């Protein structure tokens, strides 16, 4: 797409953006970038700490004279038109004159309440909080349609990037066998020293691993089994991964490949040999699915960087012989190919999504339906009265492992992120999922939205 088309056809219109959950992580990267985008005006940010908001804005070079802290509706109404509004109460957000709301709190209750209110006022919602979307994205899409608003995921995070790649493939008439992403951290092995590193952003454990030498070259699914055995202590089912695949599943109708995702430890050039049907030497029991892999690479090779991929069928052997000769990833049997985007640049990419929505009315997941539900399965016996709490970098719940269930199997399952701050009404046995009757959902608007989404056909 020629993105300059947006500028040529904007008629001098600008997006007036408000960001909720704005001072760290994703929100920080977006604040840094939108100051460079001529078609976007930062109108509002909202977070609990107004001084922290002000500090971040000044650090990023925003004009101190334009920053106005508003703690109530009267201060908001009195603020100048050119001010950057700093709000500490998210309930004030729908009363601003923003055209675009970027929701990145990660708080499902706040995110759902605020998004619903904004959509009903004609404010487009750009959802970054994948936890919220996994529970009620389908309902929020429906509310957007009813109010002529846009509700969409944003570029810069894997779900929207993957949705764009899937859309590209479908428009071209490509037969997509599998779509997915790499897990957050790379498995890095040095052939010269046999040193293994589990690359992440908090700690980088090093371990000598000479056994990887015999497993470096892919020789079929037996290689995957041996890699998994060798690296078992580093493998994990990560809630954030399954949540992101939940979003893609709901937006595309593609089912989970399996409930825990396969997580093969694989190099990029192996993907077209792995995420294919078992009868062709791969790992898939069915096709048209979403899945996740762990990227294996040398220290001097580029990371997949939490990027995304699709596996497609090669229907014309001559065409794919030409493309394989140009270095594209094609399976050894020449039946499948991998198309991939090895990046997700967080807020640096997101202004594109905002402009496509605000200026052209283009979203990414308008036909979203609850194709899959992210279940919460007990890793051990959990007693009645236990408070469930989402916490940590991976937004996990203690003693709970996530699984991604198809809708038909999950009608009574409580979605993982609906359970935050819920107290169990019943004992849960190890291996059992938490159901809707195991927590008190009476009067919970988030639950009502979930029900609305589940009822959509």
**Principal-axis shape:** globular
Low-confidence stretches: none
Biggest sheet architecture: 10 strands, mixed
Gyration radius, rounded: 23 Å
| Helix count from the secondary structure assignment | 13
**Mean pLDDT across all amino acids:** 95
The class by helix and strand makeup works out as alpha/beta
End-to-end Cα distance, whole Å, is 32 Å
Beta-strand content:
15-25%
Compute the number of strand runs. 23
Helix content: 25-40%
Would you spell out the secondary-structure blueprint of this structure?
Blueprint: H1 4-8, E1 15-20, H2 25-34, E2 40-46, H3 50-59, E3 67-70, H4 73-78, E4 84-87, E5 100-103, H5 108-120, E6 124-127, H6 130-146, E7 151-153, H7 158-171, E8 176-182, E9 187-189, E10 195-198, E11 206-208, H8 221-230, H9 239-252, E12 255-256, E13 265-266, H10 271-274, E14 289-297, E15 308-313, H11 317-325, E16 329-330, E17 336-341, H12 350-360, E18 372-378, E19 387-388, E20 390-391, E21 396-397, E22 400-406, E23 422-423, H13 445-455
Parallel strand pairs: 1-2, 1-5, 2-4, 3-4, 5-6, 6-7, 8-14, 9-14, 12-14, 13-14
Antiparallel strand pairs: 8-15, 9-10, 10-11, 15-17, 16-17, 18-22, 19-23, 20-21
Helix pairs in contact: 5-6, 6-9, 6-13, 7-9
Polypeptide structure, described:
This protein has 457 residues and is an alpha/beta fold. The chain is 29% helix and 21% strand. It has helices at residues 4-8, 25-34, 50-59, 73-78, 108-120, 130-146, 158-171, 221-230, 239-252, 271-274, 317-325, 350-360, 445-455; strands spanning 15-20, 40-46, 67-70, 84-87, 100-103, 124-127, 151-153, 176-182, 187-189, 195-198, 206-208, 255-256, 265-266, 289-297, 308-313, 329-330, 336-341, 372-378, 387-388, 390-391, 396-397, 400-406, 422-423. Strands 8, 9, 10, 11, 12, 13, 14, 15, 16 and 17 form a ten-stranded mixed beta sheet that branches. A seven-stranded parallel beta sheet has the order 3-4-2-1-5-6-7, sandwiched between helices. Helix 5 runs parallel beside helix 6, helix 6 (130-146) packs parallel to helix 9 and helix 7 runs parallel beside helix 9 (239-252). The radius of gyration is 23 Å and the shape is globular.
């Amino acid at each position: 797409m020629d993105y300059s088309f947006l500028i040529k056809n904007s008629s001098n219109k600008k997006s007036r953006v408000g960001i909720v959950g704005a001072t760290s992580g994703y929100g920080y990267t977006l604040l840094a970038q939108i100051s460079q985008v001529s078609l976007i005006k930062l109108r509002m940010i909202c977070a609990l700490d107004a001084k922290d908001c002000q500090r971040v804005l000044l650090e990023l070079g925003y004009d101190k004279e334009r920053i106005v802290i508003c703690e109530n509706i009267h201060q908001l109404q009195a603020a100048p038109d050119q001010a950057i509004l700093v709000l500490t109460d998210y309930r004030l957000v729908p009363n601003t004159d923003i055209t675009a709301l970027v929701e990145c709190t990660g708080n499902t209750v706040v995110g759902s309440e605020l998004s619903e209110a904004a959509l009903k006022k004609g404010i487009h919602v750009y959802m970054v909080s994948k936890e919220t979307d996994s529970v009620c994205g389908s309902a929020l899409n429906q509310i957007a349609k009813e109010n002529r608003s846009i509700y969409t995921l944003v570029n810069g995070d894997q779900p929207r990037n993957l949705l764009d790649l899937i859309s590209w493939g479908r428009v071209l008439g490509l037969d997509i066998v599998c779509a997915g992403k790499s897990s957050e951290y790379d498995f890095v092995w040095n052939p010269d020293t046999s040193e293994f590193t589990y690359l992440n952003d908090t700690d980088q454990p090093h371990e000598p691993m000479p056994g990887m030498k015999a497993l470096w070259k892919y020789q079929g699914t037996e290689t995957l089994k041996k890699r998994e055995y060798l690296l078992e202590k580093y493998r994990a089912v990560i809630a954030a991964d399954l949540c992101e695949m939940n979003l893609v599943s709901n937006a595309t109708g593609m089912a989970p490949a399996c409930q825990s995702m396969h997580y093969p430890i694989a190099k990029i050039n192996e993907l077209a040999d792995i995420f294919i049907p078992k009868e062709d030497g791969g790992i898939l029991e069915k096709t048209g699915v979403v899945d996740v892999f762990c990227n294996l690479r040398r220290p001097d090779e580029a990371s997949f960087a939490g990027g995304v991929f699709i596996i497609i069928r090669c229907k014309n052997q001559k065409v794919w012989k030409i493309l394989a000769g140009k270095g594209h990833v094609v399976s050894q049997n020449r039946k499948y190919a991998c198309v991939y985007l090895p990046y997700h640049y967080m807020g640096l990419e997101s202004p594109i999504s905002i402009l496509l929505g605000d200026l052209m009315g283009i979203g990414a997941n308008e036909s979203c339906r609850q194709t899959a539900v992210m279940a919460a399965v007990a890793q051990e016996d959990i007693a009645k009265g236990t408070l469930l709490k989402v916490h940590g970098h991976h937004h996990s719940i203690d003693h709970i492992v996530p699984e991604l269930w198809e809708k038909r199997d999950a009608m009574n399952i409580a979605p993982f992120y609906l359970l935050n701050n819920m107290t169990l009404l019943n004992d849960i046995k190890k291996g059992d999922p938490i159901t809707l009757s195991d927590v008190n959902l009476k009067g919970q608007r988030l639950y009502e939205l979930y029900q609305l989404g589940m009822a959509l056909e």
